Amino acid sequence: MLAGVFARGEVRDPELAGVLITVTEVRISPDLRQATAFVTRLGRSDIGEKLAALRRAAPFLRTRLARELRLRLVPDIHFQADTSIDNAMHIDALLHAPEVERDLGPQRNEP
What we know:
Blueprint: H1 2-7, E1 22-28, E2 34-40, H2 47-69, E3 76-81, H3 84-95, H4 98-104
Parallel strand pairs: 2-3
Antiparallel strand pairs: 1-2
């Protein structure tokens, strides 16, 4: 649902205009009152700079959730940068470094 709002460009904050936000995960508290949305920008590492704008947009997004999902209780939405993709790309780069490839040698299973 959140990803759809971002994809359609419904958030009118000028800081988020033309910015493609990807929601990678949403965790909801056991009492269903809090939701943490992990967000990233694929191919970019500047999502931290957009968190303030996302926090400003949270009430609007909460209202959109309430309309679309028709829930009795709609959680407050908090945003957190998802760095798992950046970490995975860093690990991949390390594994492909010449020194590491040399050390792995013939033990590495290539497809």
